[in-house]
Amino acid sequence: MGTLGFWRLAQADPEWIAAVDPDGTEHRAGDLLARSNRLVHGLRELGLQPGDGICGLVPNGADGLVLYLAALQAGWYYTPINWHLTGPEIGYIVSDSEAKAYFVHPRFLQEGVRGAEAIEPHRRFLLGDGKQDGFRPAAELTDGQPDTAPPDRTAGATMHYTSGTTGRPKGVRRTLSGLDPDDGAELMTFLLGLFGITAGPPNAHLVTSPSYHTAVTQFGGSALHMGHTLVYMDKWDAEDTLRLCERYRVTNSHLVPTHFKRLLALPEPTRAGYDLSSLKWMIHAAAPCPVPVKWAMFEWWGDCIYEYYAATEGGGTLATPEGWKSHPGTVGSAWPISELLIADDQGEPVPTGSPGTIYMKMMGVPFEYKGDPAKTAANRLKDYFTVGDIGYLDEDGFLFLCDRKADMIISGGTNIYPAEIENELMVHPKVADVAVFGIPDDDWGEQIKAVVEPAPGIAPGPELAAELIASLEGRLARMKWPKSVDFIAEMPREPNGKLLKRKLRAPYWEGHDRAI
């Protein structure tokens, strides 16, 4: 131990450009170090202790990075909040995470203010120079604080919220290690080491997606702790990706298959117009990538495309370019510190090539769903856990996905849980019954479809569909809204009341080669 970790690297080379904001503003490592140190001193004066939590409703860029770096050196849990959420959804996370400080960027103030009711006014902070009733300027915390390293540093962690199948998201919380923050950060870089990623400049990591996603924070944070420059995108754009890769000589990034589809759709002259020779480790995950799409990316970018399958809870697989090319369609084989088990509904292992529920385990750090021991236990099989996906292992130990957890919708790489949407639509007086599921979408992988049984005497039709969708305003993030509503006279249910959702989904997936 002893060569990696942001705080060590920043002291050794304060001039290293550690981050570039979406507007092109460059941040020296020494400045980010000083900002994160001042924030720790200020929050400790507010009474924060190791094990406490802070929340940030912030866009991609240095502001969120400073919150992350402060928490990770003071032994706190940092929860970045999805900025598409509505006030009540934000407030739930602030309250459930037991945050002792809540930071809001001016851009997300409208819903951020609504979410602030979950925390006392003296613990709410507005970033930037603006003013807002009921919030303190974040500068109040840091003005006059020393730039020097705080005493008694200890490793903190991120606590991301993962959408719950029952509608309410759950915080995935790991026990704090008690390590020195740089040593803890160095351990984190093991993940990037699996892909063969090397430390130090002149590496640059392109942050293509919102930092509230677990993988985005994990990969970006690990790259930073290896001495890479983080180049942040605000809103993903295909040509912008190529421009930034050329401009900052990007070596690695984290993408989803939707990105590949958009990149391949660019006109040939545009695709050929950028120098992408710096690319070495372009990693993707979050949804199955159609085999032809991935072959096309290999032809264009060469053998720099890596894939993995994993979950917020830990454990996973890795497909190298060679591994994938010899087993097209695979999501890879198990990490050295991870094990896979494919089991039937009774929890018994199934033979090679037979589909079953995918269970994983990762040596080392156990996790729990915060405040939900029942959910933690329900997803376990001995010391393995599952997110409910279905797949099989071939004779070489490569994993193939067959179907996502029956109900989960993956749109543009984001997991969307129908139960949450169904719960909101069910309360509408004109709805007798409702089912929500994903149907094929060439751009996004899946789009959200609602099938509604209208209440007695209510006429189905476009007006009703529009009314139902509009009723979600302010209650559910727009990315969770159904794209369309179909009507049905009677919902197919078993005598025990179980909805036969597959029966509803099947017609929409006819002619498609996979039901994901």
TrEMBL record:
Keyword annotations: Ligase
Q: Answer yes or no on keyword GTP-binding.
A: no
Region (Disordered): which ranges?
Answer: 129-169
All copies of the AMP-dependent synthetase/ligase domain together span: 7-364
The record's section on Pfam families has: AMP-binding, AMP-binding_C
Ranges for domain AMP-binding enzyme C-terminal: 420-498
Secretion signal, residue range per the UniProt entry? none
Family, per entry: Belongs to the ATP-dependent AMP-binding enzyme family.
Its name, as the record gives it, is Acyl-CoA synthetase
